[in-house]
Task: inverse folding
């Protein structure tokens, strides 16, 4: 059921349905240190799309936290001076989408690095090995083990590696690194900002996935992208006796908790009819941000393309820069 | 006879032909269909009154968004010969003029594409002029038939043939005038116009390619319609296709329930120039990432020194 702007306003103090783990920041300091110790071995090769005079297309490969080879699309406009870069994160369970779509950022005078999340629709390798069920989606992959074993912990570490690599690329202005993502990309974008606060300058986050897992479960929204939560409930914990254990693990990758570590300016969008990532869960993320922020609500829009939000990216990433 | 490059044969498994409903059997049937399509009576007279339609007055250009270091954004108002006007979105790259330009036509049932979406063309050093077809449906005689067509439905029951033809004329005139308008822009290379249409927009793209006085150099179509599922005889893509001889790229989602693949295959067979047809067996009437990649590669060919259907070189707008 669609929410109203007034209902969203009434949730101004809502911070999510599970507490943040007491050792959350310590946990992530250790994970970031592990990621920073990885030699990324980057490899940039011309992509199958031939270059234009104004724009080039490359495949960027690097090594991730578990030794896997990860792929990102890397597009850059022709420029004699260093250019800004947008770190682009895609929705679940897709890929970095088309070269042409990513070229819009080059049309804004920016490079773009669009990561393929491992084990999803793109070329990045997933070496697996997660404890517990893997049949029902990445959201619960590793949830029955230690938090370190979670798919999304590993992915956040991979993104930390990529962020440092990107900021150091020749021809990239390290003072203008931006983040953009919707759905899973929004949840990952929050994580990228949280775990690389010294790198990211601005972030655009649209209807983030990976948010307020307990409330998703409470609302019976544990389907579609969140279906793994219901699967784990039914097959691993049918009486709900182990919720503290596996929800406690997921809390380490919950965007509502990562939000507290974000320092950059954030533009945040929510479709009020979102039936995939319930608006209340997005409120938990937005309300957890203590950085400069602006939220735009879109009545009548669900978990779908919101052209008006995408159009705001043009000014958000270029004005005053 | 056109030259056709297609992936259809690669998708066919001989053993699966045994089952009529299999992907392979359906594709074989689509390939083997004979096409003998005659346009309706009066088709040439209809377009004779529209072809070479030019804007009825000066274009009005207004800034729409703040410019970035890489591109400018404007709304353009194009006066039409019937007294109405069409609105269009114009994005130009900030590179030395003149630049090639893509004429973009959106599908029914959705608005014109967003500014950020269309900034992709600026990345290639090309402009884009995108018709906002919904702007045509404001005010008489445009409400009614035109609004129903643009809403994306397939039910035109209750509309007279006269009303339908009037709506088709509004759309067709706007498509042709858009091409003329683009060629007149001082920043644009009038010899490097490229049309791109999705769904119903594909029919408008074909109309511009067939009837615009400005020379259109290439055509890209995604899931073209109408092709029989909607009674628009003058905008039927199957009737327009034989009048289009430019190099073309066509994408078809085989699970398309809006634009029947049978009709799309007819369009491909009836196009007059070299064609690359890509069939996506597990896609419907939707954006297809891999088709966007193919579109990008196609534009590289036609913008960076490829040749048009008649062998004439594309304008080397990015020669260095």
Result:
């Amino acid at each position: 059921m669609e929410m109203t702007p007034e209902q969203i306003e009434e949730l101004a103090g809502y911070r999510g349905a599970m507490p943040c783990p007491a050792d959350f920041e310590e946990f992530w300091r250790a994970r970031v240190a592990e990621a920073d110790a990885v030699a990324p071995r980057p490899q940039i090769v011309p992509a199958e799309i031939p270059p234009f005079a104004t724009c080039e297309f490359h495949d960027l490969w690097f090594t991730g936290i578990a030794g896997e080879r990860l792929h990102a699309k890397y597009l850059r406009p022709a420029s004699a001076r260093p250019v800004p870069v947008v770190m682009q994160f895609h929705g679940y369970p897709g890929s970095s989408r088309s070269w042409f779509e990513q070229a819009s950022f080059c049309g804004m005078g920016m490079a773009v690095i669009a990561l393929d999340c491992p084990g999803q629709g793109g070329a990045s390798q997933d070496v697996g090995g997660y404890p517990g069920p893997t049949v029902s989606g990445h959201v619960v992959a590793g949830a029955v083990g230690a938090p370190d074993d979670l798919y999304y912990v590993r992915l956040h570490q991979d993104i930390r590696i990529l962020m440092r690599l990107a900021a150091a690329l020749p021809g990239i202005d390290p003072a203008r690194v931006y983040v953009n993502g919707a759905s899973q990309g929004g949840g990952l974008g929050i994580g990228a900002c949280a775990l690389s606060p010294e790198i990211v300058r601005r972030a655009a986050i649209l209807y983030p996935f990976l948010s307020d897992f307990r409330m998703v479960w409470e609302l019976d929204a544990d389907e579609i992208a969140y279906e793994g939560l219901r699967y784990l409930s039914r097959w691993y914990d049918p009486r709900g006796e182990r919720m503290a254990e596996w929800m406690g693990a997921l809390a380490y990758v919950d965007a509502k908790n990562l939000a507290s570590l974000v320092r950059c300016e954030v533009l945040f969008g929510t479709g009020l009819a979102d039936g995939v990532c319930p608006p209340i869960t997005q409120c938990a993320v937005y309300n957890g941000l203590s950085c400069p922020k602006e939220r735009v609500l879109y009545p009548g829009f669900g978990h779908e393309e919101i052209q008006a939000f995408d159009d705001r990216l043009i000014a958000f990433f270029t004005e005053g820069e | 006879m056109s030259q056709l490059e297609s992936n259809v044969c690669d998708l066919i498994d001989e053993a699966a032909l045994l089952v009529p409903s299999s992907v392979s059997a359906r594709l074989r049937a689509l390939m083997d269909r004979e096409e003998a399509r005659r346009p309706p009576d009066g088709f040439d007279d209809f377009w004779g009154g529209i072809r070479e339609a030019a804007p009825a007055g000066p274009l009005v250009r207004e800034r729409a968004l703040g410019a970035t270091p890489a591109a400018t954004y404007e709304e353009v108002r194009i006066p039409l010969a019937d007294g109405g006007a069409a609105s269009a979105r114009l994005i130009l790259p900030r590179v030395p003029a003149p630049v090639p330009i893509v004429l973009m036509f959106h599908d029914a049932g959705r608005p014109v594409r967003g500014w950020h979406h269309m900034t992709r063309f600026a990345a290639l050093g090309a402009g884009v002029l995108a018709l906002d077809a919904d702007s045509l449906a404001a005010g008489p005689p445009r409400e009614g038939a035109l609004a129903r067509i643009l809403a994306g439905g397939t039910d035109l029951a209750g509309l007279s043939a006269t009303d339908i033809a009037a709506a088709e004329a509004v759309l067709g005139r706007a498509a042709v005038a858009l091409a003329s308008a683009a060629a007149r822009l001082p920043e644009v290379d009038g010899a490097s116009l490229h049309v791109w249409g999705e769904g119903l927009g594909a029919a408008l793209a074909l109309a511009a390619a067939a009837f615009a006085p400005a020379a259109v150099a290439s055509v890209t179509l995604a899931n073209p319609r109408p092709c029989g599922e909607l009674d628009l005889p003058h905008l039927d893509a199957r009737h327009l296709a034989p009048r289009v001889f430019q190099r073309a790229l066509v994408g078809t989602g085989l699970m398309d329930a809006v634009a029947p693949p049978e009709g799309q295959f007819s369009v491909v067979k009836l196009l007059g120039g070299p064609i690359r047809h890509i069939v996506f067996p597990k896609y419907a009437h939707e954006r297809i990432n891999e088709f966007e990649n193919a579109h990008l590669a196609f534009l590289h060919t036609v913008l960076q020194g490829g040749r048009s259907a008649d062998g004439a070189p594309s304008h080397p707008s990015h020669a260095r």
The beta strands of chain B are 4-6, 60-65, 71-79, 85-93, 99-105, 127-132, 188-198, 216-222, 247-253, 275-280. Chain B is about 30% helix and 20% strand. Residues 161-184 of chain B form the longest helix (24 residues). The first strand of chain B starts at residue 4 and ends at 6.
